[in-house]
From TrEMBL:
InterPro entries: AmpC-like (IPR050491), Beta-lactam-related (IPR001466), Beta-lactam/transpept-like (IPR012338). This is CubicO group peptidase (Beta-lactamase class C family). PANTHER family: D-ALANYL-D-ALANINE CARBOXYPEPTIDASE, D-ALANYL-D-ALANINE-CARBOXYPEPTIDASE/ENDOPEPTIDASE AMPH. Residues 30-357 form the Beta-lactamase-related domain.
Length: 374
């Protein structure tokens, strides 16, 4: 039965994705995606590609629910994990444009944005030095993404309770601004900064100030359990013993909690990519700040990985989840969402899936803007 199901799934994947792709030239995307799914046993996947601000490719593959044999469609929502950080960074930069905060504002301590919310232990004087910019750059001085990551502890605590506990129990390891250490917890703090400044929940502000101006209405923060799955959300499948429903996803809001369709994220990308059309929701000055790396890490800016070729991107990873958004220098952006993950080679191969097609001058992309039909 196991092998029959695998064979059935492979035949379904082959038939549905071939039927979706009408232009033979676009098989440069379709064929590598199908091969990737077979190699890594990916139940479901969704891809969206834009070129010069137009949606030129939007396809979904495989299953949203393997038990019910429910196909993935372009309206299905996926967890996007750490791609959420790029959204949070955009929201912070919008607040700087509104003159409601500065990137160099301190977060904790006397005069800090959250200074009245949390008491600082006397043995952590460096915490009062942390700025908004340093949290965005992962140079806050500690709380890194390892086996001591606060975000994966005390699942019953609220975000505010977790911040208070962490300030009391996990001292910084470095002087703020000096060392890059990827920090989910730092972005959790940024979510609370947004709430303090705006008087709104983090999710409400992002929806109002960032997503709605991009024409996005379906993105939201996800639930924790299978029973809390949102309408149109896929089911997540763990491999190698991973448990997709073991974390407090809702508490991850600002660093890893959003769920989205691939076309949702494509709309977001075309409105912050710095290309001429459509208009961006951030100023050119803000986009430059957002994509300028820190001295501590020349490849990480404010919520984005960057390189000297003027490409920006971010990936996301949780049990049962893999995601990536890419803004390429040549006018293309793309989004890849999966409802499983495996190991490092999985992410390396996922990252390589679309580059050949967008760099091939012979690929015939549609003239129609598929955003108009989504």
């Amino acid at each position: 039965m196991k092998y029959f199901c695998l064979l059935f799934w492979s035949l379904f994947l082959c038939i549905t994705t071939t039927a979706q792709t009408q232009d033979p030239a676009l098989l440069q995307v379709d064929n590598p995606v199908k091969a990737f799914m077979r190699q890594y046993h990916v139940p479901g996947m969704s891809v969206a590609i834009t070129r010069n601000g137009k949606l030129v490719y939007a396809h979904s593959y495989g299953y949203a629910d393997t038990t019910q044999h429910t196909p993935v469609n372009n309206s299905n929502l996926f967890r996007i994990a750490s791609v959420s950080k790029s959204i949070t960074a955009t929201a912070i930069l919008k607040l700087t444009e509104e003159k409601k905060l500065s990137l160099d504002d301190h977060v904790f301590g006397p005069g800090g944005i959250l200074g009245a919310e949390y008491s600082l232990p006397s043995n952590q004087p460096n915490v009062a030095q942390i700025t908004v910019r340093e949290l965005l750059q992962h140079t806050g001085g500690g709380w890194t993404n390892d086996d001591t990551d606060p975000m994966f502890s005390h699942p019953k605590m609220t975000a505010n309770e977790l911040i208070a506990w962490t300030l009391d129990h996990q001292p910084l390891l470095h002087t703020p601004g000096t060392v890059y250490a990827y920090s989910n917890f730092g972005y959790c703090i940024l979510g609370r900064v947004i709430e303090k400044i705006t008087g709104m929940t983090y999710e409400q502000y992002v929806k109002t100030a960032i997503l709605q101006p991009c024409g996005i209405s379906t993105m939201q923060t996800g639930g924790n359990t299978l029973d809390e799955r949102k309408p149109n959300e896929v089911i997540y499948y763990g491999q190698q013993g991973q448990q997709p429903y073991s974390y407090n996803i809702a508490r991850m809001d600002a660093h890893g909690g959003w769920i989205a369709t691939a076309t949702d994220l494509a709309r977001f990308l075309v409105h912050i990519d710095g290309f001429p059309s459509p208009p961006d929701i951030l100023t050119a000055t803000s986009i430059t700040a957002m994509t300028t790396p820190s001295a501590a890490n020349p490849n990480y800016a404010l919520g984005w990985l960057v390189n000297v070729y003027h490409n920006w991107w971010h990936s996301g990873s949780l049990p049962g989840t893999a995601s990536e958004i890419i803004r390429a220098h040549n006018g293309f952006n793309w989004v890849i969402l999966c409802n499983t993950r495996t190991d490092k080679s999985f992410f390396n191969d996922m990252d390589a899936l679309i580059w050949k097609a967008v760099n091939d001058s012979t690929t015939q992309w549609p003239d129609t803007n598929l955003f108009m039909t989504k």
